[in-house]
Amino acid sequence: MAESVWSDWFPVLRWARGYGRGQLGGDLTAAAVVTLLLIPQALAYAVLAGMPPVTGLYASIVPMAVYALMCSSNVLGPGPTALRSVMSAAAVGAVVTPGGDAFIATSAVLAVLVGVALLVMGALRMGFMAHFLSQPVLAGFITAGGLLIAMSQVGHLLGVPLASGDALAFARSLIARAGDAHGLTLAVGAASIVAMVVARRWGRMALTRLAIPAAVADVLVKAAPLLVMAAAIGAAHAFDAPARGVAVVGDIPRGLPGLSVAPLLTVPWTTVQALLLPALLIAAMTFVEQISIAQSMAARRGERLDANAEMRAMGAANVAAGLTGAFAIGASFARTTVVAESGGRTPAAGLYTAVLLALAALLLTPWLRALPMAVLAAVVLVSLGSLLDWASFRRNWHYSRADFAAQALTFVATLLVDLVSGLMVGVLASLALHLWRSSHPHIAVVGNVAGTEHYRNVRRHDVITHPHLLGLRVDESLFFANVHHLEQRIDAELAAQPAIRDVILQCTAVNDIDASALQVLTALNDRLRQRGVRLHLSEVKGPVMDRLRRSDFLQRLSGHIYLTHHQAVQALRAPPPDA
Amino acid sequence: MAESVWSDWFPVLRWARGYGRGQLGGDLTAAAVVTLLLIPQALAYAVLAGMPPVTGLYASIVPMAVYALMCSSNVLGPGPTALRSVMSAAAVGAVVTPGGDAFIATSAVLAVLVGVALLVMGALRMGFMAHFLSQPVLAGFITAGGLLIAMSQVGHLLGVPLASGDALAFARSLIARAGDAHGLTLAVGAASIVAMVVARRWGRMALTRLAIPAAVADVLVKAAPLLVMAAAIGAAHAFDAPARGVAVVGDIPRGLPGLSVAPLLTVPWTTVQALLLPALLIAAMTFVEQISIAQSMAARRGERLDANAEMRAMGAANVAAGLTGAFAIGASFARTTVVAESGGRTPAAGLYTAVLLALAALLLTPWLRALPMAVLAAVVLVSLGSLLDWASFRRNWHYSRADFAAQALTFVATLLVDLVSGLMVGVLASLALHLWRSSHPHIAVVGNVAGTEHYRNVRRHDVITHPHLLGLRVDESLFFANVHHLEQRIDAELAAQPAIRDVILQCTAVNDIDASALQVLTALNDRLRQRGVRLHLSEVKGPVMDRLRRSDFLQRLSGHIYLTHHQAVQALRAPPPDA
């Protein structure tokens, strides 16, 4: 028992036993390749989060190791992502002025809060909460987020500070400041973008034509952003870029991340409270994205996935990120694919990646001071394509206008207001849509299919009905928000057919009757009785019947309960004496 | 067409044509009796709302006339109610200091907002929104509201100012100040309560024993509070109550309410914004109460009710209340019963009541200045019994613990925090409960009932299944919050029974598949295909099928769509070649 709990929380206790040479090669290769991809992204996304570049490496080292010990997916890894970084910057920027120690500490607190939210959701098995981010809302939000991220990088690319919180502020400041663009900065950024796009599109083909083995070509293509950074650092040194007005990263501390709890304790409680809602939203989004990536990978590889273990592992990774001075992190589809394609076999690949990144933090940092900011902006921009999901807008428009409306509303609110409000608007729109739908349940008048015991909708089938009998099927559980709809429908049917003397509710799809619905049904029964109409129920499910027995409804019911709708109609089809 | 719209909005255009002597007698009697009851309540509830007593009459004159022209119920009438008054006092008191012109103007603005909310809900046919106040939440709220109202009157009764916003503040100030109680004030209040309770309980019996005709006795009993007030005014004059320290109403303006828009325009926009949420909640509560009263009356009298007309009429009445300097109003069950019992036949009774109240405002006001406040408190206290619904707590505890929890939470939050927060907590608790339930739909593995074409839950019935076939019935529409539950269930079933090659979803109860659910089903289909498992659907409803045709799901589906679940099992029951 105790051992099973331990190995539930730390699946490493299970897979480490069978670990051997068979896995080592693949895991090491995958770790090396993903490190090449991760270093530039980590630095760029740290800047996107408003944090010192080196914290991007910190956000990957300890968290990746923690995650590897706790996760159930063999190829997923946590790390900085563009969307979470820009959300972190927006949420923290709303309560603390950017660019100081307070901003760094508050970002770390946000990461801890995101982690705690994930751990709590995992412990309470509340993963379902995260699903209130519906797919159209998430797609609308991520697409708008991608555009906002692109806007936030334009300033670095042009070498002028631009507003980037919302689309209108960006447009206004772009119009006002575009003329001040710094030519050399723009040239450096544009050249970096071109180099990375060319490498990604045609690099592999060109290298294999040069008779370079495919495996080596693949690694070189993935290292392209890192090579561009190296080249840019070299050029910046050679031509003294800072003196020519090109903004560079500047001095950054060398070394490994340490446990830094003291700065977190300086963050006031009111700030923590203001971060709770953003933390919850980031946690929900992180979980939904992570699970969809992990599920598609597990299916492709024929592996089992434990969603609760994933939630816990990502929660612990975020807490670790916060405690080592970094910011909120999540799973990346691109990096996960790279690990899988490079032969990653077990979570140990994450441990090796953590070691390689620690070496990078120790050895590379002195070189980074000359890295132009425009190159980091270029790294961000070329990775944004996967966020812009225009196809989903078209698909949802065709499939469901209501879903499209929720998506469009989220997109517009995110672009024009801010990331947190946009996502909140989307969640509320999804909920409102769901409530509207479930408070208008499908109710069908049913009649007998001749020669059978089946009862079907009179509008769709040729069925037998009786003028003094009304058979109604409600296709939903009865609860406070929809029971009035049923009541109104019965009133309307009775008004249209005054001959009705018996109403039979077919309860095939009624899985629950809550206290409000029970009260309305009781009142309805009394009202119908005063009009000389009896109320009957048929096909009531076991649990619903058990509960009705605990109320006085069955004693007050003017009619009967029938096992099947057919039995009810058989018993009641003789015209009443007063008809 | 145009005429029908006019008479939809103003049903008076329909009923006025047939109006004659037959209705006049009953309507006039009802108007006279309800006026006797309404005058003391109007004055008392105005004080409860923190408003000058005369505004209680204003709140009934023009609003009652407006309502009579627009309503569809023959016996309902709008006017001050204890619960709305205390909610108005709490909402307005949260933004404006009580006891000045700003408080009066802001209360009037709140009434206008409540009215506009009702009119908008009526116009958009959003009456269903009001039903998100579930019955247990409403009962919990009203009971706590009744207690808070009682607490608010204790100060007037003891002649010392007490805090009354929440139960704890009240308890603390009662303990601190109870010793300062003013004996004579308490005696006046206690005597009034005793007189009114005695009159209500035994008055009719005593009067008929004195050979007074039953009809006259009834009217006298209903006039008891008014008679108590008259006696108190007489006694206060005779013994110069103010000089002896008994608080009295004091000078109040004489005359009719006028259109007073100018003071409303002085209320700042930020105040209006702060009142929006309270206004929405009061509007929703007003509508739910009004409809439940109107429906039970219409059923008892065999009349038809137009819920939208009721909502519009109550909306217009509240706007009229605000524009004539009064506060938010609603329907009262007690007064409605009185109108029905005294022979009210048409909404014209409301018009006559308005005229009688106008006369009262003109003629009675000079007498009111000597009325002790403690008597008004007594009027409020004896009317509170109907609000305290302890039976519903016991009933819900037995019927549904979840409903009971929502009720208890609302009750406690209302008592300990405040009225608006309490109601909000209740609405959110109801919604959370609904979302939790609908995101955990009932899913049954189904098998064939031998010798029939019926398929039933394998856990409850003795049915035939096949090891390579999994038949699942989902008893709810598939949407973003519950589709993951289905996915996890299928994964669990496949893990438990690796022989499964075909999964058939019986879609009998699936009335809708939203875009998120479609995406998950598509991904699930792809995942199952990779494991060599086919996905089939059976008994898909027409509208759902139409929509699926507008996506690429049917092209990607690895299995087939079957008209009935039985056809699916017949087609697939032969073991697959690889089994």
TrEMBL record, chains A, B:
Keywords: Membrane, Transmembrane, Transmembrane helix. It is a multi-pass membrane protein. GO terms for cellular component: membrane. Pfam families: STAS (PF01740), Sulfate_transp (PF00916). The chain crosses the membrane at residues 28-48, 55-77, 102-124, 136-161, 181-199, 219-239, 274-294, 315-334, 346-364, 371-388, 408-433. The keyword Membrane applies. InterPro entries: SLC26A/SulP_dom, SLC26A/SulP_fam, STAS_dom, STAS_dom_sf. One of its GO terms (biological process) is transmembrane transport. This is Putative sulfate transporter.
